[in-house]
Structure formats: C-alpha cells, structure tokens
Amino acid sequence: MNQVYRTTIGLLVSGLTIAMPLSGSAQQKKPAPKKTTSADARDAIRESDLKRDLFALAGDHYRGREGGTLDELRASAWIAEQMRAIGAQPAGDDGTYFQFFHIQRTRITKGSRLSIGSHQLKVNEDAIITVPGISSVNAPMVFVGTGTPEEVAKVDIKGKAVALVFSGTPPASTIFRYFLNTTMRTRSAELVKAGAVAVVYVSDARAQEIFNRWGTIYERGRYDLPGGPNTKVAEQAPTIWLPESALSWVQQAGQQLVANINVESFSYPSVNIVAKVPGTDAKLKAENVLFSTHQDHDGVRRAVAGDSIWNGADDNATGCAGTLAVMRAFVKKPGRRTALFVFHGAEERGLLGSRYYSATPTVPKESIVAVLNAEMIGRNAPDSAALLGSQRPHRNSQDLVNLAMTANQTGPKFKLDTLWDKATHPEGWYFRSDHLPYARLGIPAICYTTLLHKDYHTPKDEPDRINIAKMANVTRWIYLTGWAVANRDQRPTPDKDFKLER
C-alpha cells in the first residue's frame, strides 16, 4: 500500500458512518417523509439549500477540489455526508457511497533541463513543453521567422532546432486556443519530418494571451485511466513554447539549444460518489434514472490578482448543489423508477470518473434508462440556458429531448441557446462533460448548462458570482425531466441512427 492510499484511507476511516449504513441498535430512526399532495416534489428544491451547499463546496476550505488530490477526496466525503443526511441510500461499492478508481498522471520531471544559448529556462514556467515526452537534444538553433514554406526553404534545418514566431489566422468561428494547439502540433510534425530535432515557438500577441491563461494546464502534465492513450510515453523531438518577450534573444544567430527532458508517472486515487432513492414500482424500480454531475475542479495554481485557489463555483459546484437538491426532492416523493445519483471524480482531467463508471457501473448497465447531466448551471442571462444533446448529430434520444422540452415549458421556460450544441460550434462543448461516455454507449443522455463565461477556469469563478435563482430554475428543470422519466411506463427510446461526428 503506497503512501497516497494510506493517507486516503486514514482520511476516510474516521468518516465511515457517512459511507456505510448503520446497523443493529445503532440504526437511527429517520423521520417519516412529509406527505405531499402535489403531483411532484419540486417545492423541495429551495434556494437556501442551494446557496448553502454551493458556498460550502466552492469555498476555500476545499482548495479547488483538484482531481486526484486529498482536496477532491475531502470534498467527496462532504458530499457523501450530505447524501446520508438527506436520506439517500449508498449505491457505490461494498455498501458505501464511494467507487474509487485510479488515475494515471504523466508529467515532466523537475530535474529536466532546458537552455537556449545563455538562457537557462525553467520548464513550464519560462518555457512550456507542449507534450510530456523524453528527449535529449544538443543542437544549433536556427530562426525561420514565421515559418512559412519560403522562409524554411532558405535554411538547412536537418539536425537543427527550428525557432519561429507563432502566426496564423484561424478560420471563422474557430476558438483561437484550439487553432493554436492544432497549428503547433501540425507544423511541428512537418518540421520534424523534414529533419528538425526540436521546434521552438515564440508567442505573438494572441498566443501570449493563451500562454498566460492556459499555461498551467501544461505544467500539470497529462492524465488518463490506467492503460489509456495519455499514459504512453515515448522519446520524441520536443515542441517548446516561449513567451512573446523571448523574441528579442531567440532571433540571435549562433545559439545552441540543449534539452534533457525526462518524464515521471504517478497513480492517484479519485472517486465517484453514488447514491440512490429506490423506486416505488415493483417492476420499474429495477431501472435507474441517472442524475450526473462532477465534483472536481482545478485546485491550487498560479495566483491571479493574488488568488491561487481556483474554486470552480460554477464549474461545477453549481451542478453538485443542484444534484443534491434533486435528491432531496426524490427522497420527499420517490418516483416509480429508482433515482441514481453519480458525482463523477476527475472530470477536469478528461472525463475520467464518468468514463470509469460508465464502463464499470454499480448497477446493471442495461438498467440505466437515461442520463441527465448538470454542468455549470449558474451564470449568464437569467432567462436563458442550453440543452446539449438536443439536436443532431448530438441527439441520441428524441424521446428524452421531448420530455426535457416539456419540462422546460412546465417549469422555468428558459429561452434555449441552440448554437453551442451544433457540430459546427468551435468549443465542441458537447464533448466536454460527463454525459458523453454514456451517450457513446447508446444510453439516452442530455446535458443541462448555462454555458461558458469570462471567469471560466480562473480564480474568479467564485460562489458570490452565481445567480442562485437561475441555478434553482435549472435544477427544477432537471428534476421535472427526471420525474417524467421516472414515472412513465416506457423508458426513453434511443435514436436508432445516432452517430457522433467524432
């Protein structure tokens, strides 16, 4: 047992009562649920509960809940305690609220060294290595301007490190950071194929904005489930990304690039938190309506304006608070089908928790009739929201979408933004949340979201910026959809010809 797991178990042993039902004389009597005469229990979804849970989970106490850290595990234990207090039953492994899994992290070692001429560069601070790989390079560096074919043709690049200024205009409606990453990857491959032993990009003004905002992603390295594609490491020519300020000295002739880059790999625990409210119908209770969300965010990173905790209030403490509120409603008035609640770990590391749970669910996979995913539900205009998976090619159940549309008209009556669900939208937002692994398995799945905003993945995503009333309305929308799924005779019908564009 390694030190990480000893620490993890030590953290959770003291809270086993939140993970396992009490037995014998220790069993506490729960108050009988209050009777309700309404057709559903949407009145159990209260803004005061949502606000309390949001501020608890997205406060500094949990230090941004980074996947694979003790902060994520402590936040997960808190969520499990809320499940127990609400009255939902454990539905994880071995009678607990937890389903643990491994995540594999590969990063560049701190002992790696990089220099250009007289400049000693700190890897992933002064310079970013875009892909963690093993490399040993000691080669002269040549500068080729912006790297046009004409500029490259003038220089012998075989056996050389090639430096160039990043440039290019993305096609219309393309997010610049995606264009930058794709362009770097493509150009680097072309230059290496032509004989370069390393490629060095210097940021232009637009690339510098991405360097500043998203550079912390690279310093973390890559994550995956064990055996996944991001766990594979090979020796390769490095792609190095420098800030705009480096241009003045990168252009100097006669410099030598020396790179000795090594990688290391770690296995960390992450966890899905799983609870259920059993259905009331003798037959249909064997089927599950899965309410999905994720509890992790970005953790502690470089300080921005003096704040180093990336709290992730909207992403995704709002989804967690909303899912707990839906749970309260089902405990107050259970549906005919079982309501299954899964808080996925390590979503920000590549949908790892949902990929793991969808592959190894704690209920029979065929019993999951629908997935209703809550992803960022508390920002932007108060009267608008979006439903991912509502149109082709992302729609995999017209039947489920119809239920969601009816629930919207019954409840909050949001104006629905349909642009973000289109295959042509540059953000590819459909592919970036926990409904996706289930949809790929053919399970009817949709995602409720109020979309991105300027504080997305920054320390400014704080709980005091959340529109609690709007979050409550989205939560009621999710609940009303799930209530309809849980109580009608037929399970949602999948579209027979569902096929994603990627």
Automatic annotation (TrEMBL):
Occurrences of domain Peptidase M28 (ranges) = 272-478
- Top-level taxon in the UniProt lineage: Bacteria
Matching InterPro entries: M28_fam, PA_dom_sf, Peptidase_M28
| Region annotation (Disordered) ranges | 24-43
Q: Which GO terms describe its molecular function?
A: metalloexopeptidase activity
| Any one GO biological process | proteolysis
* Protein name, entry field: M28 family peptidase
